[in-house]
Amino acid sequence: MAKIKPPLSDLPIKTADKGFYNGFSLDVTVTSKLAVGGLVLWAVAFPEQAGGVLGGLNTFILANFASWYIYVMAFFVVVCLALAVWPAAGKLRLGHDDERPEFDNFSWFSMMFGAGIGVGMLTWAVAEPIYHFRNNPEVIQGLADGESMNNFMNAYKYSYLHWGFSAWSSYAITGLALAFFAYRRGLPLTIRSSLTPLFGSALSGPLGHLVDIVAVIATVLGVAQTLGFGVEQFVAGMSKIGIGDWLVTAEGNASPAGIVVALVVIMGASTLSALSGVGKGIKWLSNINMGLSIFLLAFLMIFGSTWFGMQALFMGMIDYLIALPKMLFTVYHADGTETGDALSGWQGAWTVFYWAWWVAFAPFVGLFLARISRGRTIREFVLGAMIVPSIMCFVWFSFAGGTAIDMELSGVADGAIFASTDGAKIFTMTGLMLGDVLGWGMAVIIVILLMTYLVTSADSAVLIVNTINAAGDEGPKARPHIIFWGVTLGLVVAALLLVGGLTAIQTAMVIGALPFSVVMLLMCFSLFKAIYRDGLRARHGVTSITVELPPAE
């Protein structure tokens, strides 16, 4: 039998040793900047051409890779559950066996939730159940009636599908792979390190550079998608509280001036927060937005449609869990029939879009989760990062969306929530609940909460991009580049919003996510191989933990 060797614990990545790029990988940083900068310049200089090319690529991907997105996301859910129940994996700690977590559970969940999905909650907790209440696969197939009680649970089954275990499993896979190889192997906290069991030291060169570049581009486009939704809602909120009608167009969407003002405020604050680091600004903001989120959720649970919310939460979760295996693996194909084409169109616009969004968000959220999860066991990490945030999403959707659906069914809203833009739906709902004066006060709270979520997501993303570019180093030398990426991220959102609206951002994000989905699939095989090999090493007395304990504080 071949001798069992210790795992790879050294992955040198060439970085500049002087100048502006001191400490950064020139191959990754410069190439990423050129790619993202080129996209911005192209979109601004040739908007029609850019829109046509991006639209054509998007159509091609949705037509040919929809099945890939469906099946690969289903695989991530299965892998997470397998790692949690596999005894050899679940008990392993992300670090030394006697290490303990750096952050307490409340701060851990707050940072994880705020960076991962917080912004989307304020837009989609009301907008998505309302949409699926009107139309979903059951309605398309004639099995339920839109806007009726027999479609109520279907609205939640599909909302939970998109915001539940699938979304968080993609984050958990990426975060776990990064944390495992950084805190047990001592490898750089960057994307390429997670593939070392498959490709070894070859990742020090061009192959590793390519992996990290793909991750940076996916991160920028994924966060741009989130910020795009957030900017639209932030502008709607500022208009609601009376800052200025010039912020929105006659159709209720953000005006060019509103987009620019919102991005200057959001990206300015996020860049300042990013400069303070994870342990200060981001942690502080995350705790604030968790507190405000609890306040808003408590308000909806007490003063909203409590009974509707309880039904949506418990009955919706049961329906979701029963239907999950089928929903995870069902692919609708356009077959030339009205029903088949409608089902395929719905899945492309919702499920495939969401799967691409979560994949594009995964390098950012995953690396951030790894950064804040040292010392936790694999089982604790997987269950904590996959199940707890999913349940929080379910609670939000049930009470926020349930209240909106009840108000429309009872006639209180009289179609007003249906008619509002996605970002304005929550303001319309709370305004109808509270009246003009108290509704204005609640709108202010929601705008502040949205601001903290947007800043948390943006500043976390900036730090993560710089960490990848700096070969896993989070040192203070990244400060000039934090400012650069803060400005660049704002420009990406502004350019795509101004030339093509949210559709342009969605298109770019779906395209950018595809190559990183391949990287994530490889991460799964890499993790299984590493854990299996560690078991063999343990039986032969070969150590598999090659990283030093962190210094005591």
From TrEMBL:
Bilayer-crossing regions: 65-86, 106-127, 160-183, 257-278, 290-310, 352-369, 381-399, 437-456, 482-505, 511-532
Membrane topology: Multi-pass membrane protein
Subcellular location per the Swiss-Prot or TrEMBL entry: Cell membrane
Keyword terms of this UniProt record: Cell membrane, Membrane, Transmembrane, Transmembrane helix, Transport
Record-linked InterPro entries: BCCT_CS, BCCT_transptr
Family: Belongs to the BCCT transporter (TC 2.A.15) family.
Protein name: BCCT family transporter
Protein's organism: Salipiger mangrovisoli
Taxonomic lineage of the native organism: Bacteria, Pseudomonadati, Pseudomonadota, Alphaproteobacteria, Rhodobacterales
